[in-house]
Amino acid sequence: MSGVCKIPVTLFTGFFGVGKTTAIKSLLARKPEQEKWAVLVNEFGEVAIDQMTVDPDDHSDVVIRDIPGGCMCCAMNVPMRVAVTDILRRVRPDRLLIEPTGIGHPVGILDELRAPGIAQAIELKAVICLVDPRHVNDPRVQAVDVFRDQIHLADILVAGKSDLANPDELDAFRDWAHTLYPAKVRVLEVSEGALDLSLLDINPQKMRVPLFPDAHDHDTHHHATSSLEFQLEQGRPYRAENAGNGYKGCGWIFSNEDVFDRKGVTDLLGLTGLPGLSKGTVVERLKGVFRTGKDWVLIDRARNEITVTPISYRNDSRLEIIVPEGTPTNWTALENALITLLGPSSPLS
């Protein structure tokens, strides 16, 4: 890779549901027309959803790659090394954006980007960490070592979803942000992911040392229960479970012939108590794309906040749910509830 112009690379970190994907989509919508960008996404589970939310018709000059199963941050980071190398050699983008899973530790990724071979081909820019200003002082979040290192290793700290926070919550965020040491290069508040493009060109501070250096060595217990080699049949979804770093998840992929009742699936996934989950369970993240007749929708839920928006994706319906690892779960009960919402198939639109 020597002898080529270095490609600027920006890493976006942040806990589940803080708006990383929204921020990246906002940046893509405003990127210079003459530039080709690449995005590397790593989701917690085996069922990829985030890459489906970007409309290829709107971003023909954007290449999106996915690494499933949360393995981008593991100590033995072969999948990420292969993916980044392939992007740099084959795509040759003008810029690369990397979005790891919400429970991903950034140090494994940063080590890989600084390693011989890749380091000579890229210019690592400031690490951007997004947080939800309403939850930064939540003891459940503050107790997670990975979250604390996401904050500590970031150069730029962004309060996403600021329009949803009240004045007291924003004041608490500002007070907390200014106690962080060493100080951040920038501390920002944004709504709907509207980050300024100039942030992508800010250089990082001197290399930071993680507070919890062992927190990213989770490859011994971060696992999936099945492979992505499968064949889909109508009414019989593929299912994959995943666990690691105090969280577990389950994902489903349905045949493109399966058609869901839109109101039914929206009502079901918006329930405080989902079928198969114990009462009072906090759904850290829920994201799915569903075929509902001639329309397709994206259902996005963080805790008890849910949004439903149209989506251009036209392949299969899929869902991923993440909950705390100790949560009693009966994924079959939830799967059966989803299957009851299936109607007769119709020609794909």
Task: Report on this structure.
The chain is of the alpha/beta class and 349 residues long. The chain folds into 2 domains: 7-201, 3-Layer(aba) Sandwich (Rossmann fold), CATH 3.40.50.300; 225-343, Hypothetical Protein Yjia, Chain: A,domain 2. It is built from 8 helices and 17 strands. The protein has helices at residues 20-29, 78-91, 106-113, 139-142, 145-152, 167-177, 262-269, 331-339; strands spanning 7-13, 37-42, 62-67, 95-99, 122-124, 128-131, 156-159, 186-189, 223-224, 238-244, 247-254, 259-260, 285-292, 295-302, 305-310, 317-324, 342-343. Strands 1, 2, 3, 4, 5, 6, 7 and 8 form an 8-stranded parallel beta sheet that branches. A 7-stranded antiparallel beta sheet has the order 9-10-11-16-13-14-15, covered by helices on one side. A hairpin with a 2-residue loop joins β13 (285-292) and β14. It is globular and about 55 Å long. Residues 218-227 have low confidence and may be disordered.
Model regions low in confidence, pLDDT < 50 over at least 5 residues: 218-227
CATH superfamily of the largest domain: P-loop containing nucleotide triphosphate hydrolases
Per the principal axes of the C-alpha atoms, what is the gross shape? Answer: globular
Please give the CATH class of the largest domain: Alpha Beta
Structural class computed from helices and strand pairing: alpha/beta
